[in-house]
Design a protein that fits this description.
This protein has 150 residues and is mostly helical. Helix content is 67%, strand content 0%. The chain has a domain of 78 residues. Helix 3 packs parallel to helix 5 and helix 4 packs antiparallel against helix 5.
């Protein structure tokens, strides 16, 4: 792209001031019935919706807050659930590896990873969902690193 300032924009990205005579000729015309007064606004579902929407501005703000609260609640539950499941899986893996012939470092790594995932579950329950996500990733990485020593 040359980035020349004098290059014309495509018609769909031009602003109203930039519209040229050629672009005006290319746009389709809308025929208005003859019995419709010139000054009367056209009655369409879109126009009536806009009028109704103006009356309900206060309700929209409440709906947005409800949606945000629901989204935050789902994120907390996801962080808690993921952290708890991975903590249980890491604990089970640590117990199974400790009962086998694996080196001592392997079950210790699984147990440490499980502890980090349990910490992530606690962080998720306290609405620290981003930190809980990265803590969960760190816990799984510790478990994967312990698996490499086997």
């Amino acid at each position: 792209m040359s980035g020349r300032p004098d290059a014309d924009l495509p018609p769909d990205t031009q602003t109203a001031e930039d519209t040229t005579e050629d672009a005006r000729e290319d746009t389709p015309r809308v025929d208005v019935p003859e019995d419709t007064p010139v000054d009367a606004p056209e009655e369409s579902p879109e126009n009536s919706y806009e009028r109704d929407d103006e009356d309900d501005d206060e309700d929209d703000e409440g709906d947005d807050e409800d949606l945000l609260a629901a989204r935050a609640r789902r994120a907390r539950w996801a962080a808690v659930g993921t952290g708890a499941v991975l903590a249980l899986a890491g604990t089970a893996a640590a117990l199974l590896r400790a009962a086998g012939t694996a080196p001592v470092l392997v079950p210790v790594a699984y147990a440490c990873g499980a502890a980090v995932c349990a910490l992530a579950a606690v962080m998720g329950s306290r609405a620290r969902t981003r930190r809980a996500l990265w803590t969960t990733v760190a816990g799984v990485m510790v478990m994967a690193l312990g698996d490499q020593f086997d």
